[in-house]
Amino acid sequence: MSSWIKNWNPEDEIFWESTGKKIAWNTLTITTISLVMSFATWFLFSVMVIKLPVIGFSFTKMQLFWLAAMPGLAGGLFRILHTFLIPMFGTRLVVTVATLIKIIPLLMLGFAVSDPNSSFGYFMVIAFLMGMGGGDFSSFMPSTSTFFPKRLIGTALGIQAGIGNFGVSLVQLISPILLGVSIVAVWGGGQTVVDSGQVIYLQNIAFFYVIPLFIMGIISWIKLRSVPVVASFKEQLDIFGSKHTWYCTLTYFMTFGTFAGMSAAFPLLIRILYGEFPEAPDPLKYAFYGPLIGSAVRVVFGKIADKTGGAILTQITGIAIVSCIALMIFMGVLTPTSMEQFPWFVGLVMVIFFFTGVGNAATFRQFPIIFSDSPRKAAGVIGWTAAVAAFGPFIYNILIGQSIEITGTAIPFFSLIGIISVWATWTNWYYYTRKGCERPS
Hints:
Mean pLDDT: 89
Number of helices: 20
Strand order of the largest sheet: 1-2
Largest sheet: 2 strands, antiparallel
Structural class: mainly alpha
Shape: globular
Radius of gyration: 21 Å
CATH class: Mainly Alpha
Helix content: over 70%
CATH topology: Growth Hormone, Chain: A
CATH superfamily: MFS general substrate transporter like domains
Order of helices and strands: HHHHHHHHHHEEHHHHHHHHHH
CATH architecture: Up-down Bundle
């Protein structure tokens, strides 16, 4: 119990300057570094699904979409669990255990890719366990919201979520480098690329994160403390009695659900849509740019949202996402006839990533204001909305795969996302943005 802080009051200027500020920023630093590792492990399969076929694993297109989708499904489920953990167990225990436990599926994955007899079912189990990395967000972020005063919540959450999101770009950026570095392959030999005969070390992509996770787990246990925002599981269910919990869930699915979904599906979508043309692009050369843009923008706009309010930025985000989807369909980049359409496809996707970064920062600024009567409820809503939005990778991969399999094109799926975004944008305008709205934020 000595890890629990007594009499925590960040709204008291004297307390904040003398005691609270140092603890809050130290906690933010440690949990943010850990969150980067969480996002990296969560999105490992967005790289794996590109490389498994080239080393001889004969999985179908739909099986590959399932492997890319499974961490998203698990991430959403684990986030629902994480939503309720901080008030029950505290920051120190939750962050430490969540950081260390991800080492298990990483080791499983590293050994699995080195064994050509590894089955699709076994990879599915590993992919599900990788979803633990996605679950962390719904305890780390609510924890952060309890450490900071309201005037800095947008900034703090923007920094943590934005830098944490860099984990997606990290895994997509450094994986091609790790593939060719034999010295990192401590366990197991290389794998031979079927077409070229080149030897790569796919297990490196998994093993690389084991030591950083172990170090951050130990640091978390030694350095972190917990704010006494205590509530039982049953008491925390009161957030579901408010209609605004569901409205916030809708808007955050539009922003983070799209960010996470596109991050997970983008590499495979490039391969499926443009992979058959002469001089087809390498998906991993482009995949990391989107998450990188969205993450950087989220950091910057967290502070901007503190000054402008979140609602107007969420409104702009919704309009931008709907417009980009309409252009993708109208310009035919989802049904390409040549590589000349590829730059337009990538460009529009990058714009979507940019505005999801804006919207992610804006919505997390909104939620504590919408639920300003209770910091505990605000933290719970942050966790819950993040949990639902974490299903984005699962929804995007499975429905894109189904859309292509049934109709031969991804247009039906993106039309559905456009409709959901229109609904979310209207909801945000009606309840949080327009003059005289119910809860301006």
